[in-house]
What we know:
The protein has one domain. The protein contains twelve helices and no strands. It has helices at about 15-35, 40-45, 45-65, 75-90, 95-105, 105-110, 115-145, 155-180, 185-200, 215-220, 225-235, 245-265. The longest helix is centred in the middle third of the chain and has 29 residues, at about 115-145. It is globular and about 55 Å long. About 40% of the residues are buried.
Amino acid sequence: MPKRAVPPAASAKDPAVTAFVRDTLALAAVELQKLGRDPLELLTRAIQPALWLLIFGQVFGRIKAIPTGNQSYLTFMVPGILAQSVLFIAIFYGISVIWERDLGILQKLLVTPAPRSALVLGKALSAGVRGLSQGFIIYLLAITLRIPLRFQMGPILGVVGFIILGSALFSTFSLAVACIVRTRERFMGVGQVLTMPLFFTSNAIYPLSIMPPWLRALAKVNPLSYQVDALRVLMVQGGQSMFGLGRDFTVLFFVLVMLVLLTARLYPNVVR
């Protein structure tokens, strides 16, 4: 089995911030090397969003049962399906920690001087880059279906940023779950239980305005709702934000920071 690289140890003379950034980027680069050896993984994960857009979206668009204002239902749901794709990839990312523990890689990472938060954030950053591949696929599908998208540089960069932020958030949440359950079988079970509630209690495939009060309350505390909201206003022509881009970013960033700090404390528990 080929040896895996570990983040280089920070020199005592390095400023703390510089060392932290270097350790984070080093681990992210190691994680992305795995993706280069198995790019087919991302293509297979594109099947599910394609089915949602080509079948579910087309059928419900003809029914016209869900009010979406001046937008077609298919246009309305494209950002939600992108967020769903990002969620589904990120939420199972934590299983890599369990594999690394079984292979002895995690133990080597934990004895390096790199801060635990840098190890967690490095994995989160690599998950964000993985999420970008889903964005590329969704854009291709949307163009094929003639959905009116925004192709200005500003909105596209905003979409990239929110994809990375959402992927990092949910992958870090996944890492925290992996630190608690510790076994692959339990992790897969918990992951499957979490994905559907997160998706269906968000505004991904129906607007907040038609939700019953209890579901609307859940949607407003669901981070996925804020990612969908940001993507909706940035991706599609005429997309409107329910919360505002500033609030979307603030909520996602705050939750990500909290999850990174929590997971950094839980990380050593995996090997115990």
